[in-house]
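Q: Convert this sequence to structure tokens.
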Amino acid sequence: MNTIKKALPYLLIILIAFYVLPLFIADTGSGMFMLLLVIPVICVIVSLIYGKKEKFNILYSIIVAILFIPVVFIHFNDSALVYVLLYGIISLISNYVGSKI
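A:
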């Protein structure tokens, strides 16, 4: 439980990125830019910082992946479910690298 409390500020940033940034998608090009560049970069940066400050935690990355599931159905369609896995993996790798820094 203490681990989740420490992760909350980082997860809040990820949550904001997941739910607010898609509101700025105007067309397919901006959607791809957001899904393939902006959101992953935010995931990398936040997960690196989390890993550096709090050490490696696989639960953090699982929560990051789970947080994106509702976004798929709110802003996109089920073809975007692949990003759940992608963001989870990005978070996992970045969290691990951050813990080694």
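The CA atoms of residues 66 and 84 lie 7 Å apart.
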